[in-house]
Specification:
Thrombin, subunit H, globular, Rossmann fold, 6-stranded antiparallel β-barrel, 29% helix, 6-stranded antiparallel beta barrel, 17 strands, 36% strand, 3 domains
Amino acid sequence: MHGSMALTSLLVCADAEAVQVLSRIFQDLSIEVETCGDPHAAQTRIEEQYFDALVVDCQDEPSATALIGHARNSPSHRSSIVIALVNARNQVKEIFAQGANFLVYKPVSRERALHSIHAARALLRQERRVQPRIPVHASASVSYPGKEDAAATIVELNENGLGIRTTDQLPPSGKVYFQFALPGQDSVIRLAGEVMWRNAAGQVGIRFVNVPQASKRALQRWVQEQSTEGTKDRSLSQSAQTTNVSVRLSAGLGLLSASAPDRRNLSRRACCLGAEVYPADSKVPHRCTLSDISSGGCYVETTEPFPAGTVVTIVVRTNDLKLCVSGKVLSTHPGFGMGVRFSLTSDEERAHVQELLACAEAESKFTL
């Protein structure tokens, strides 16, 4: 079996669950994997044997960066791909500076890690993506909690995700909202995704998590056209047409308070809470999903958002509670959702918001 494997990898990680996930991925891709829980012992191994890929857990960041630097200073491993496993506390600039090619954010999931390994296809000398991404050059607007309308350039795309280049630091967890026009088309694509990987060159890999039906159909149609007609060159030349399309998008949460500094100071949490939203003077519920929430407001995903300025009541039911909060629509994105700022007029409503935040936190821990 080992003799048939063209590629080798060294997995330096003491986390048993992460080791299990990553080992299975490498084995499925016919890449021989050797595991090592001690970065110091790993230094000895890379002196003894060449590995095409090094996966290094940065839980102990000084030891991890020392190992990455040691590999890069070794003539035999200067061209190896290095994937660093990181969390929000790690100094990613330093990790990149030492020579990491890609980051995978913990907790490590199969899908997240698989995307990173696929993204490193050129360095691994193999392409195993089931659905190849189409090279493209298109402008996009990106929004996420604390940032509105960040500029990005889409460089590759398929029905499940995209690759972008941006100078902004996208959040490693929670949803990121995109709006863009496909080359050669006037229709605007709106969708939400999550960061799967990023590299030192500023490229970020995104997996789609919420795509409205209209955007999904337009995206599928465009991908099919590119695949059947072989129009890769045309997609590049027509990218200038996207500049004529307005690509402003606000994630909703970015409009929850009066000023940008206030907005960034709010503590926001990604969530997926079912809710009923009632416009003022109506008893007809609109069933929606809260995708982000803070003490100042929330983002409501719905294909039929209310106009800006609409006063609403949001009801979330749990096994034990019925939580009601009033608010006003501040931003609206047809076919996608709306940003709502809470109007808290009583201690009871303020308490309900805190309970909603607690529900979101409990849900995220359960999901992890």
